[in-house]
């Protein structure tokens, strides 16, 4: 961490200008914003409601996830267990003609051990976790040279068909972004119904951890795309051209 | 700030209307984005859509009314997350902050994801002047950077370029064979920019939202360039307007529903990236330093004016551009500055000064379509009228825009309407004239031998050049009142 520099206009002067424009002195919000005064027990209560709503409706919500993910541009696969999931991954990798695969080091790979299966097809598979022998810079090059990136999820959103990833040791966000094909392995326990539910759970964790948010919260919904030339949709402009979501019930 | 050409609005719009290539491009946008937006509104149901808009508007009203409080909270939480928040009162100060960071960290190459505020500041030339190579990475922004132009739409900056234009540009600037296949051109940009992402020391992004509760910056993109720019280089600087702060992370859900649907008709974009501070010690990637630069640059003038304050609620979705009958004909460049369309016609006069942009509030038929589509229910027509009033009443003769003839007419009309006797005499006289349907100079014969009621007498002809003179009814309301309605039938 660097020492804060004093650049630009000092905060007090800038805020005075804002107050002057608003035509009032230093008065805090007259009606406190309800969300910002919530206590941890109140957030826990709401989170419990979110989880029970989810548990009571899981099969429907998994269907909704599959539907919305497909609408969002994912190729969606349903798997009844790890073997089926590995089968889908093998097929996707084979179809794409890939020879190199990079994956994150998330817990889902303990449940779905796909390294051996891919290795048996002569695919080079690397785990993107830095250590003394593999510094961040060399990992970045490995990711860049890979044909396929495979990750798990921290959450998936039924509302939008979105994969949500948080920073973890062993999870580079470049794995889901740089290779031309991305495969996401999603478990029923990763499911959250709505955007509101997700942000509630994240806020609870943020306040429970005394204001540690983690350096990012990333959403992925479908392939990288652009319509910047003549409104024609082109996929794979900076991120992956193809994205696959394997939902493991 | 970039060159301000708002004073050339009339001439530029006339030229734009006569450009058939531009018209084709604008038609594509209108039929693309707006049709998709309507689908999403129907899918959500109009009632729920309206409730979302109201909820978002309420959040914006609350935040802007307490902007000082939330900026202070944001400062606390950006700092707590290990980042630095810098306040800039104007473009020069903002550019100097970024240049200072670049100089002191020995930055050679910078990649940028789309940022309208950096266009507003004209940041790129400042960085280039201190020897930093700057690469725009959004495909549309990359195209206009190569062409040395400015964006013509908030969401699709290069929409005015045809595929042939882009192919020619790539061939000339990148030294590759001419190839107008859109897929190939996108792949070329991917290749060129991929190297730059990996080489860059500095990533610069805008922000769609900044969250006071957590000190986070949120960017919404479809290409993935925003995520690459903010995770690969060793420094990340986010630049945005001070009005982009929202109170809580949970407020994001409503804006994430409204913004993509309103902008491109998507339920959500491919990528939403929320970053909070620099990378932590265990993270696999991410910048070592995070800076957020919040810019005033004229926004406090909007804040200080209760009639125009709601322009600060804008989330830059571009829906008002896509529906506007004026934008649809003249495109973005005619507006002469960074922010085009109906919202630009409000924002530009406030940011560059009414004197230079006094014609922009006239660039509207006041049909109200922009207000209808705005996800924050911003009353743009009301603000355009307010700006017209400010122009008309300004003591500064350089601002007052109406020609003498128009002001004389307006004062005559005003005396006519405030005197019942004068009005009734005038109506009687006009009725007489009207009976002789074909009387010149109040009517003229068209080529297909129809009489059109208009005026050929200057200066009245200026008014009727683009309008028909409405016919007077056979009976006026006053006649009806005197004959029938005033009798008490009870």
Structure description:
The complex is a heterodimer of chains A (249) and B (490). With 249 residues, chain A is an alpha/beta fold. Chain A is built from eight helices and twelve strands. In chain A, strands 1-12-7-4-2-3 form a six-stranded parallel sheet, with helices on both faces. With 490 residues, chain B is an alpha/beta fold. In chain B, the strands form three sheets. Chain B has a six-stranded parallel sheet, sandwiched between helices. In chain B, strands 8-5-6-9 form a four-stranded mixed sheet. The longest helix of chain B has 25 residues. Chain B is elongated, with a radius of gyration of 27 Å. The N and C termini of chain B lie far apart (70 Å). Classes of the chains: A alpha/beta (249), B alpha/beta (490). At the A-B interface, helix 1, helix 7, helix 8, strand 9 and strand 10 of A face helix 2, helix 4, strand 1, helix 5 and helix 8 of B.
